[in-house]
Write a structure and sequence with these properties.
The complex is a heterodimer. Chain A has 2 domains: 172 residues, Stage V sporulation protein AD (Peroxisomal Thiolase, Chain A, domain 1, 3-Layer(aba) Sandwich), CATH 3.40.47.40; 155 residues, Stage V sporulation protein AD (Peroxisomal Thiolase, Chain A, domain 1), CATH 3.40.47. Chain A contains 11 helices and 17 strands. In chain A, helix 6 runs parallel beside helix 7. By secondary structure, chain B is mainly α. Chain B has a domain of 100 residues. Chain B is 82% helix and 0% strand. In chain B, 22% of the residues are buried. Classes of the chains: A alpha/beta, B mainly alpha. Chains A and B meet through helix 7 of A and helix 1, helix 4 and helix 6 of B. Chain B: It comes from Hespellia stercorisuis DSM 15480. Chain B: It holds the Pfam family SpoVAC_SpoVAEB. Chain B: Keywords: Membrane, Transmembrane, Transmembrane helix. Chain B: This is Stage V sporulation protein AC.
């Protein structure tokens, strides 16, 4: 059912049947390390390159999610997946062996939300009873793609975020589970003209605010109607900007707000500066931390808002700004 | 929203973000850069002095000094130690010749996987390239000025 300007509310809500997450060594040592399904100590996952390692993570995450639900790959109707690399190669190479009909997506670090929204819409429309949503990021491949080779000696600014090495896969379908996708709010591209790619939290915070506020308006809700509102990777700086921007629009988010970028690492010990980032950041946190709490009923309703900074090295070099996007996924215990 | 309003919002947001964004402490950073850069220079001076002690001509000694510092920078990069030095020392680790060595060695290591020609060959100077190009251009300009100055006596 169409809700307001940008949202959908599912009358027969699709279930989030199962999830799988795979992380690298730094994430495994972090606060969520105990809760992940699989990790690798050398970040290469038995491969020779960062890119191949990222693909392997995606494949493993999918296999774990399917295994938990006892669903064979042939039973999955479509797969929605994406990553941060050029032309989305981590996904293309990663899910190739699964032989599931697929849609490749790009939403920067908001891809988990984009994939979940599309998979839920497809299930709600009756286009399949098992759909996979998957995404990943890798510190090595992302540094190489967007910044410098790993061995290059430079000093990261305090506003910089650390790309999460990790992948999360989610099986969305009609089989009953304890978490359902009750609705989605698809985000717009929001550009406040910031050009600093080393301060992505500030670039994405306006988009997160826009989507969260739109979700409240579309559903006629407020922060009090959610147990938690969890953004993808705003980090320390973006978080406070979100609070300020939302307050200007009349909403107090501070009490209910969490950020995956601040949950996945221990910032005192792991030296990640402003927090975690990357597609894997929100996906891994959703799988390892948020879904279990929803499944147990500790939280009844959560607004999950992965955020993405839409830049490329070319757009950055050509002096373009860094626009943001955020998608809102309403998750409910059932 | 028209263009002027958008521009105004962008300016305001930029200013606001600046107040929210922490930066490295300039004084602490300068002190660390001084210590790191100084230490590298002292090592260089040590090598040069040793060369002199061995009765080596000065220009040959200078060449050995540069060579050994570059070697040190490359080895530390290969062992993944140089980034930690730079993290602490900032520009103190970047500006000396060891930093230059790092900026060539790091891409070589990273892009080796993309092949000898299209990987190492094309991308080894992605960071050092601009320094080399504009270094040569600058020396050419300075050479021209020197030449004109000489003509004028």
């Amino acid at each position: 059912m169409i809700k307001g300007k940008q949202s959908l509310s599912f009358t027969q809500a699709p279930f989030l049947i199962s999830s799988g997450c795979v992380v690298g060594s730094k994430e495994a040592k972090g606060p969520l390390g105990k809760h992940v399904d699989m990790f690798n100590t050398d970040d290469l996952f038995g491969e020779k390159t960062w890119e191949a390692a990222e693909s392997t993570m995606q494949k493993e995450a999918c296999v774990i999610a399917l295994g938990k639900a006892h669903v064979e790959t042939e039973e999955v109707r479509y797969l929605f997946g994406g990553d941060l690399l050029r032309q989305g190669i981590a996904t293309s190479m990663g899910v190739e062996t699964l032989q599931i009909p697929m849609f490749g997506l790009y939403g920067a670090c908001s891809t988990s939300g984009e994939a979940l929204a599309l998979a839920s819409m497809a299930v709600a429309a009756g286009y399949g009873s098992n759909l996979l949503a998957v995404t990943s990021s890798h510190f090595g491949s992302a540094e190489k793609e967007f910044r410098f080779p790993l061995g290059y000696a430079n000093q990261r600014p305090l506003s910089a975020q650390w790309t999460v090495t990790g992948s999360g896969a989610f099986l969305v379908g009609t089989a009953k589970s304890h978490v359902r996708v009750a609705g989605v709010t698809v985000g717009k591209i929001v550009d406040y003209g910031l050009k600093d790619s080393q301060n992505m939290g500030a670039c994405m915070a306006p988009a997160a605010t826009d989507t969260i506020v739109q979700n409240f308006i579309d559903f006629g809700r407020g922060p009090e109607d959610y147990d938690r509102i969890i953004t993808g990777d705003l980090g320390k700086i973006g978080r406070t900007i979100l609070w300020d921007l939302a307050e200007k629009k009349g909403y107090q988010l501070k009490e209910k707000h969490l950020d995956c970028g601040l949950l996945i690492y221990d910032h005192e010990k792991q030296d990640t500066h402003a927090g975690g980032s990357g597609c894997g950041c929100a996906a891994v946190t959703l799988s390892a931390y948020i879904l279990p709490k929803l499944a147990k009923g500790e939280w009844k309703r959560v607004l999950f808002v992965p955020t993405g900074a839409l830049l490329s090295t070319v757009s950055f070099n050509e002096g373009e700004s860094v626009p943001g996007i955020a998608h809102g996924i309403v998750l409910e215990h059932c | 929203m028209d263009k002027i309003q958008k521009k105004k919002r962008e300016e305001q947001y930029k200013k606001y973000v600046k107040t929210k964004t922490p930066v490295h402490n300039l004084f602490a950073n300068m002190t660390r850069a001084f210590i790191t850069g100084g230490t590298i220079c002292v090592i260089g001076q040590g090598i040069l002095n040793y060369c002199k002690f061995q009765k080596m001509p000065e220009d040959l000694g200078g060449a050995w000094t540069s060579l050994l510092l570059v070697l040190g920078g490359v080895i530390l990069t290969g062992m993944n130690l140089y980034p930690s030095v730079a993290k602490w020392g900032g520009a103190g680790a970047l500006v000396p010749i060891t930093g230059f060595a790092n900026s060539v060695a790091a891409p070589a290591i990273e892009y080796k996987k993309e092949g000898q020609v299209f990987g190492i060959g094309c991308k080894i100077f992605t960071i050092a390239g601009p320094v080399i190009l504009y270094g040569i251009v600058t020396s050419w300009v300075l050479g021209g000025i020197y030449w004109i100055g000489k003509l004028l006596g």
